[in-house]
UniProtKB/TrEMBL annotation:
Catalysis performed (reactions): adenylyl-molybdopterin + molybdate = Mo-molybdopterin + AMP + H(+)
CDD domains the record matches: MoeA (cd00887)
Family: Belongs to the MoeA family.
An example Gene Ontology molecular-function term: molybdopterin molybdotransferase activity
Record GO cellular component, one term: cytosol
Entry function: Catalyzes the insertion of molybdate into adenylated molybdopterin with the concomitant release of AMP.
Keyword Cell inner membrane: no
InterPro entries: MoaB/Mog-like_dom_sf, MoaB/Mog_dom, MoCF_biosynth_CS, MoeA-like, MoeA_C_domain_IV, MoeA_C_domain_IV_sf, MoeA_linker/N, MoeA_linker/N_sf
Protein name: Molybdopterin molybdenumtransferase
Pathway of action: Cofactor biosynthesis; molybdopterin biosynthesis
Required cofactor(s): Mg(2+)
Source organism: Cellulophaga baltica
Keywords attached to this entry: Magnesium, Metal-binding, Molybdenum, Molybdenum cofactor biosynthesis, Transferase
Pfam families for this protein: MoCF_biosynth, MoeA_C, MoeA_N
Amino acid sequence: MEKGSTLISIEEAQNLVLTCSSLATILLEVPLTDALDFVLANDVISEIDIPPFRQSAMDGYALKISSEKTYTVIGEIKAGDHANPPLKNTETVRIFTGAPVPDTADAVIMQERVAVDGTRMSPQMPLVSEMNIRPRGSQIKRGATALEKGTVLKGAHIGFLASIGVTTVTVYKKPSIGIVVTGNELKAPGTPLEYGEIYESNGTMLSAVLRELGYLDTAITTVIDDYEETKNTLAAAIKKYDVVMVTGGISVGDYDFVGKALKAIGVAEIFYKVKQKPGKPLFFGKKDSTAVFGLPGNPAAALSCFYIYVYPLLKKTEGATQTQLLRIEMPMLEDYNVRGDRAQFLKAYVNGAHVQILGGQSSAMVRAFGDANALVFLPENTTIVKKGTPVKTILLPTK
Ligand SMILES: Nc1nc2c(c(=O)[nH]1)N[C@H]1C(S)=C(S)[C@@H](COP(=O)(O)OP(=O)(O)OC[C@H]3O[C@@H](n4cnc5c(N)ncnc54)[C@H](O)[C@@H]3O)O[C@H]1N2
Ligand code: MOO
């Protein structure tokens, strides 16, 4: 344990974030076409069978199976036709994929497996009852749950809901998110840098990452290292947004005003400092219904804390069943010598059957995050991880 501070464990911190976050109370009815990335607030019940009729899965011939070797072609049914001709024992209809299979037919034979001579059709393979016919309701039955409450709507879900005729869905309102970046050294890209200055990138990065995840109600505010200004800016952000992420100014330096300012404006500290690398000085607190994260100023540390702590809170707030990023075990591609004794999150690339720890792990360097599709978690006091050893691998969202 560090002198003069109480570092909590990663697990403790993650649990505190989840127990202290509350579900959105505002529900929205949105057109299905605008529902991507929202979370369903109700189960969606299908009002129809899908497919709504017995449907041909092949281009071929629909028939009633008999002992006859040859059938007479009496017509044709294509997708979208409403015909339902009664078939006698030795009759068949030409049929196409997606077309309704006549009630009297019990098999469809694909056209590659028949011999045709004028209106005479002879199957060239054994016929099996209901072959190449999609039963009515085989994808979903009327009255069944199509999608459950808590589902994060992806493109495929939107397609599935469209297929059962849904036009609007009830979803949780997504949290609004204020990003406050602190530091005298920060300049907006587009202006020349004076000695000692850097370009502001945390706000731009976090807002882009939020956009990737479907959070669009966000804004960035910049504040200099001044106690009064920090207090005023944070108080205004906390009043306005459901979640506030501050970056920088959370460590122990004389000009790190964020902690003091948050306390002064009445943000209750839930934890400050976590036994992890990067992101040791992470702060989490609450004021009224607003969750406040003090993220480290170092860009890669800020992003790492975003995925491990802020992401689950956002997901829980918007009602998602799955709040954590997916975790798998993957064998290491190469040996890795660990620096430091804190538990670590390392930028990594899952490549087929292995995971590779990327170069450029410094929390000041964000480049490797761009190449990463995962974070490898190594518990505290790990010294070396040998090639082939399975490690906990957290998959980053891909877009
Ligand atoms: N005496 C100690 N010093 C530090 C400790 C410590 O325990 N004792 N912890 C170090 C660790 S770990 C981290 S992480 C940083 C966190 O410090 P802050 O959160 O207070 O961040 P700053 O000092 O304001 O900035 C750190 C670094 O990041 C750059 N930065 C800040 N904001 C932005 C931005 N919006 N865009 C781009 N870059 C940004 C800033 O210029 C600094 O270089 O504290 C260590 N120190
Ligand atoms: O923990 Mo700091 O977040 O290493 O960079």
